[in-house]
């Protein structure tokens, strides 16, 4: 270990004693009343010492004001180097910065917001590359020129993506727009798979609603078909009472608002009472004349007592 390294680890005496200078510099840089007690010092090098003071600023728990002082060789006057606010070992720090492309979530885009798409986005691929165009000296190219002359159409140079926004009527660009070929980029196979996985997770056959449904959306009259490759497995729900109204649903999805669930189950009625006549006990409406505890008397007996 060299002598310079040994001196750098031992705080300079004059710099270590300059606590008041360091505190005055920290109080000048900070707001009034936010510089706390002196919590320590560290040697930064030869005749360079940093003093740490407690920070009482709201929201800066564990932070410390660091005032660095130094002195020249063989000088007895200590001067100020810099004052900064540094986090301590238990300081409350902001979370690590995340790029917007990784921070963005579905539903975050609002009115007026613009979401740029990466040029190398794997979800997209060129919609029209021009690789299938015939060479200028080929027979097919000559036939296209003759057809354009016969149809009184203009052959626009370049791909449909670089053409003006409003193509001239009768031009090849206008025909490409009608056929849906004017888009610069279209969904790639990777983008199709990502969309299918995302839609199936929300409205797919594995959801609790689909598990309890009477039938699938493939047989529902409220299903609106969509075009393209995704139309073979998905559609749009058009039932306002369905939880998937206006959403893209899987053909294997289903809910209780299925169009063929028209027959509602009737309210169960209690069965009529069953009378077992083999064990029935008959009770007369009037008691029998000889069923009482007092025997019935005749007219002669009642006549002696003066009864009529």
Mean pLDDT: 77
Secondary structure tally: strands: 9
Counted by DSSP, the helix tally is 9
Q: Please state the overall shape, judged from the principal axes of the Cα atoms.
A: flat
Q: Uncertain runs with pLDDT below 50, 5 residues or more?
A: 1-7
Strand order of the largest sheet: 1-2-3-4
Give the terminus-to-terminus CA distance.
148 Å
Indicate the percent of residues in helices: 10-25%
Topology as H/E string?
HHHEEEEHEHHEHHEEEH
Largest sheet: 4 strands, antiparallel
Strand content: 15-25%
**Structure classification:** alpha+beta
Give me the Rg, rounded: 47 Å
In short:
The protein is of the alpha+beta class and 308 residues long. Helix content is 23%, strand content 17%. It is flat.
């Amino acid at each position: 270990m060299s002598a310079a390294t040994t001196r750098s680890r031992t705080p300079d005496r004059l710099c270590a004693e300059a606590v008041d200078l360091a505190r005055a510099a920290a109080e000048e840089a900070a707001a009034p009343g936010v510089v706390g007690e002196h919590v320590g010092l560290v040697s930064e090098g030869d005749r360079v010492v940093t003093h740490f003071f407690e920070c009482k600023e709201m929201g800066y728990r564990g932070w410390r004001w660091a005032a660095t002082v130094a002195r020249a060789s063989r000088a007895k006057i200590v001067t100020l180097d810099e004052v900064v606010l540094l986090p301590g070992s238990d300081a409350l720090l902001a979370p690590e910065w995340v790029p917007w492309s990784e921070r963005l979530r579905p539903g975050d885009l609002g009115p007026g917001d613009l979401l740029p798409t990466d040029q190398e986005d794997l979800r997209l691929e060129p919609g029209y590359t021009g690789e299938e165009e015939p060479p200028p000296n080929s027979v097919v190219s000559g036939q296209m020129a003759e057809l354009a002359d016969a149809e009184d159409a203009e052959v626009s140079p370049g791909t449909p993506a670089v053409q003006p926004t409003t193509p001239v009527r009768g031009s090849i660009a206008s025909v490409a727009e009608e056929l849906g070929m004017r888009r610069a980029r279209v969904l790639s196979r990777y983008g199709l798979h990502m969309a299918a996985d995302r839609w199936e997770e929300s409205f797919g056959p594995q959801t609790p609603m689909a598990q309890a449904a009477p039938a699938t959306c493939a047989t529902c009259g409220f299903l609106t078909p969509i075009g393209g490759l995704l139309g073979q497995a998905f559609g749009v729900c058009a039932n306002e009472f369905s939880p998937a109204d206006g959403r893209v649903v899987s053909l294997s999805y289903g809910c209780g608002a299925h169009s063929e669930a028209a027959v509602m189950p009737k309210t169960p009625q209690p069965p009529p009472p069953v009378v077992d006549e083999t064990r029935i006990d008959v009770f007369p409406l009037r008691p029998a004349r000889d069923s009482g505890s007092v025997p019935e008397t005749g007219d002669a007996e009642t006549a002696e007592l003066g009864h009529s």
